[in-house]
Specification:
Keywords: Kinase, Transferase. Pfam families: AAA_33, PNK3P. This is Polynucleotide kinase 3'-phosphatase. By secondary structure, this protein is of the alpha/beta class. The chain folds into two domains: 192 residues, HAD superfamily/HAD-like (Rossmann fold, 3-Layer(aba) Sandwich); 153 residues, Rossmann fold, CATH 3.40.50. The chain is built from 15 helices and 14 strands. The strands form three sheets. The chain has a seven-stranded mixed β-sheet, sandwiched between helices. A five-stranded parallel β-sheet has the order 11-12-10-13-14, sandwiched between helices. Helix 11 runs parallel beside helix 12. It is elongated, with a radius of gyration of 32 Å.
């Protein structure tokens, strides 16, 4: 019979192995089949678990050899993560994705395993403000992309180490963020170390933010001080390098109460106008309530009255009624202060200036303490953004008698408060 079309050419050779030799790829393994039919109660728990506590992300890697409760105090080796245990493989400051990491030094993994063998709890305590949780939760998403990337990166690190390990990541500027000790408290509670306690002299915290000339901050060193842990940089701990010199840094202990240093302020005239000059957080309002309000001075504050014109009008009303006035504003520059000098000239009364010399670091510290501790914040002030301090520093000109003041009183900040307030204030907060 004639063919209806051209003949099919013979194959030049085998296109694929005979069926009997072909290997069939399958995701089904004996292990997965066994796991599927194993009752849930008998299954081995996953080695890595994650949970979110408010703004804190906690990951835990269990190996089956985790330490249980002990009657003896526990040694703890705590580490920052980025630029301490790992760095980016790309060389970027921040990782491009979850795979963009490498060990900070080749010795890191073996050193951490040695610590576990020596009986240490090994933990990671890291600020991770680039992780977004709240926005994603409001949008109805369980995990943000940034959180997923962090989990994947941390998971890879924990699996590579294969030691009992917990990771704590602070995602907001709150009690968990270093140098504050919220993450440390969460660790102590999770491992019940409040019972047997921590062997502080033989424990350690290692971090790169140490206040050295090229460091971005000293939050790691401050955290160690707050937690009561000895501190080392990665270079000191992993490479046995000598300690580096520190830049001049803010130390809260230098500002604690000194009974020999009492601020001096007394009324010089029956009727006078007093203006404050100082950064937000310099202690201006506290100074008013402690020293000028008892002397009968009325307070004018732009945060309350909203505009300078309203402040000027209220001040004039008080002065016309023969009541002395304190202007509790920053009054950073001569142009701003001149508005008040004009008021004093118009009413023919003397004007004095109280100059608060507190540094920007000290003011930021006061701002953080005040916002985080309600009992030290009677006026319920909210935390000010960094731009508020930067703007004051940009505009600031130290007050001078040549501007027209009859007196300038300089106030150098000293913290005053009871023992509880002192204990809170003298910790590092920023």
């Amino acid at each position: 019979m004639a063919s209806s079309g051209p003949k099919r050419r013979a194959s030049p050779g085998a296109i694929s192995p005979p069926p009997v030799k072909r290997k069939i790829e399958s995701a089904v393994t004996k292990k997965s089949v066994s796991s599927f039919f194993t009752p849930t109660s008998q299954k081995k728990p996953e080695p890595i678990t994650w949970r979110v506590v408010n703004s804190l992300v906690v990951g835990r890697y269990s190996t089956g050899a985790d330490r249980g409760l002990s009657a003896e105090k526990s040694k703890v080796a705590a580490f920052d993560l980025d630029s301490t245990l790992v760095s980016t493989a790309s060389g970027n400051t921040f990782p491009r994705n979850s795979a963009d990491w490498k060990w900070w030094h080749d010795s890191v993994p073996s050193r951490l395993r040695e610590l576990t063998t020596d009986g240490y709890h090994v933990i990671i305590i890291s600020n991770q403000k680039k992780i977004s949780i709240q926005k994603e939760m409001k949008a109805g998403r369980s995990d943000s992309k940034s959180l997923t990337n962090f989990k994947e990166r941390a998971t890879a690190i924990m699996k590579h180490l294969d030691i009992p390990l917990s990771v704590y990541a602070a995602t907001e500027d709150d009690k968990y963020r270093k140098p504050r000790t919220g993450m440390w408290s969460e660790f102590i509670d999770e491992y019940d170390l409040d019972v047997a306690g921590v062997d502080f002299p033989n424990s350690i915290f290692v971090g790169d933010a140490a206040g050295r000339p090229n460091d971005h901050s000293m939050v790691d060193r401050g955290f160690a001080v707050n937690a009561g842990l000895p501190f080392k940089t990665p270079e000191e701990f992993f490479l046995n390098a000598a300690p580096e010199p520190l830049v001049e840094s803010f130390d809260p202990s230098l500002y604690l109460q000194d009974s020999t240093d009492v601020p001096c302020f007394s009324r010089e005239s029956a009727l006078e106008l007093v203006i404050f000059c100082g950064s937000p957080g310099a202690g201006k309002s506290t100074f008013y309530w402690d020293y000028l309000e008892p002397l009968g001075y009325e307070r004018v504050n732009q945060d309350i009255l909203k505009t300078r014109q309203k402040c000027i009008q209220v001040a004039k009303d008080h002065l016309t009624a023969r009541r002395s006035v304190v202007v509790d504003n920053t009054n950073a520059d001569p142009e701003t202060r001149n508005h008040w000098i004009k008021v004093s000239k118009d009413l023919n009364i003397p004007i004095r200036c109280v100059y608060f010399s507190a540094s920007s670091s000290l003011c930021r510290h006061n701002n953080a303490v005040r916002a985080a501790n309600k009992f030290m914040n009677p006026e319920s002030r909210v935390s000010l953004p960094g731009i508020a301090f930067g703007d004051f520093a940009r505009r600031f000109k130290e007050p001078s008698m040549s501007e027209g003041f009859s007196d300038i009183v300089r106030v150098d900040f000293r913290f005053r408060g009871d023992d509880h307030a002192k204990e809170v204030w003298q910790k590092y907060w920023i």
